[in-house]
Automatic annotation (TrEMBL):
SMART domains: HDc. Keywords: Hydrolase. The keyword Oxidoreductase does not apply. This is Deoxyguanosinetriphosphate triphosphohydrolase-like protein. Residues 66-201 form the HD domain. It comes from Novosphingobium mangrovi (ex Hu et al. 2023). Residues 1-31 are annotated as: Disordered. Belongs to the dGTPase family. Type 2 subfamily.
């Protein structure tokens, strides 16, 4: 497939932080294909299987976790990239890796680690994604990290736009390998970012209904949903409600994807290079103003009804306590950590505290619960609410 002139061309990649190990070339793959494959084969990516998406350590097999969410984002992102003439492999790699930096228990876990590191610069999951891929997950003999291309690292750092005030983690990494934080990222990164929104806007509906946290009548009456729901009822009046809802979610995703493509194509008229994309001063991958307004209103609805549901808030409170207590235990008794982490524990601050947070951030939900039980002799009640 021919790439559009504004796409990230793998033949023009800026390369990697470290020279390719031993000059080996395993198979005929582009640099971005190699990045995607390295991400998929990484330990950090596998751990997403047991990390919170909406619900903490869900018992049910049908709820989404970070891994399934990332796969869904990648599927949506590749479709958009193909239609716009972008590099699909770079887009897919960014979508697969975008949540690798999340600690156990999702945003509740992030809040706990941020509080624990308040004297050591805090914690940010986006920066931790880069820290994990560039320094922590290190399967290669000659360098730390996965040694991904500049374009993949740039996209992960700036997928939400230029970074004016980077956290300590991103600041350190950028000093070692300049990702030009003041500019916009590639179109592939912008596609991955909005594909994330499309995926969780719609798939969280499915999980929220399954858990009984969303009221179906309230949901279907919301202006962002109502038009597509009316069309589904009109076209499929005789199928079960369960199948109607599945069709609704497909329709919602399609509507958002089509709107994104149409608006982005308008913005890309006259753009002739990836350099122009970075210097544009605004995102070039975007929803229409009408869709953006509706999507923001729907997000407010989802926060009120699902993410800030009283039961969810109680669960988040317990999850924060688990990580706070783990951090306290490892700070007082580092020998409780895995041996390899004990051996590399820095003696000075803030490096010591950050090392302990790195260890906890890499845990899955269930491993964090197990570690807490081993240390404190109890399993926190109410951590699983579905």
């Amino acid at each position: 497939m021919m790439l559009a002139p504004y796409a990230s061309d793998p033949a023009r990649s800026r390369g990697r932080e470290f020279p390719m190990e031993n000059g080996l070339a395993r198979g005929e793959r582009s640099p971005y294909q190699r990045d995607r494959d390295r991400i998929i084969h990484s330990i950090a990516f596998r751990r997403l299987r047991y990390k919170t998406q909406v619900f903490v350590a869900p018992d049910g097999d049908h709820y989404r976790v970070r891994l399934t969410h990332s796969l869904e984002v990648a599927q949506i992102a590749r479709v958009i990239a193909r239609i716009l003439g972008l590099d699909e492999d770079l887009t897919e790699g960014l979508a697969l890796a975008h949540d690798i930096g999340h600690p156990p228990f999702g945003h509740a876990g992030e809040e706990a680690l941020d509080a624990a590191l308040h004297k050591a610069g805090g914690f940010d999951h986006n920066a931790n994604t880069l820290r994990t891929l560039m320094r922590i997950d290190s399967p290669y003999p000659h360098h730390d990290g996965l040694n991904l291309t500049w374009e993949t690292l740039e996209g992960l750092a700036k997928h939400n736009g230029p970074v004016a005030n980077p956290s300590w983690a991103l600041r350190e990494l950028n000093a070692a390998y300049d990702l030009e934080l003041g500019t916009h990222a590639s179109l592939e990164a912008q596609v991955a970012a909005l594909s994330d929104d499309i995926a969780y806007d719609n798939h969280d509906i499915d999980d929220g209904l399954r858990a009984g946290f969303l009221d179906l009548d309230e949901l279907l009456a919301h202006p962002f949903i109502a038009a597509n729901w009316g069309e589904v009822e009109r076209r499929y009046p005789d199928i079960s409600r369960e199948r109607q809802l599945a069709e609704l979610l497909r329709s919602q995703i399609g509507t958002m994807v089509n709107d994104l493509i149409a608006e982005s194509q308008k913005r890309l008229v006259g753009v002739e290079s990836v350099e122009e994309v970075r210097a544009a001063g605004r995102p070039l991958i975007a929803f229409s103003a009408e869709m953006e307004e509706g999507e923001r209103a729907f997000k407010r609805f989802m926060y009120e009804k699902l993410y800030y549901h009283p039961e969810q808030l109680e669960t988040a409170k317990r999850a924060r306590a688990v990580l706070a207590e783990l951090y306290a235990a490892y700070s007082q008794e580092p020998v409780l950590m895995d041996e390899s982490w004990i051996d590399t524990l820095p003696r000075t601050e803030p490096e010591r505290s950050r090392h302990i947070a790195d260890y906890i951030a890499g845990m899955t939900d269930r491993f964090a619960i197990t570690c807490h039980e081993n240390i404190y002799g109890r399993t926190p009640a109410g951590l699983r609410n579905v």
